[in-house]
Amino acid sequence: MRYRPLGSDPADPRLGRFVPDDWRHVERYPFGALAEEHRPKRSPVVIGVNWYSAFDGPEQDETSGEFFIAKAGVKKLGHIRGGHCVCLEPGGTPDTDAWYAFYDQGHEGACVGFGWSRCMSLYNGSEYAARWLWDSAKKRDEWPETNPGDDNGTSVRAAAQVLKDTGHVLWADSYAADDWQAREKYTPEVKQGIKAFRWAKSVDDVHSVLANPRADALGAVPILNSWGPGYPHRTYLPDEVLAKLIEEDGEIAVPTDR
Question: Which of 12, 155, 226, 239 is exposed most, by the fewest CB atoms within 10 A?
Answer without folding.
Answer: 12
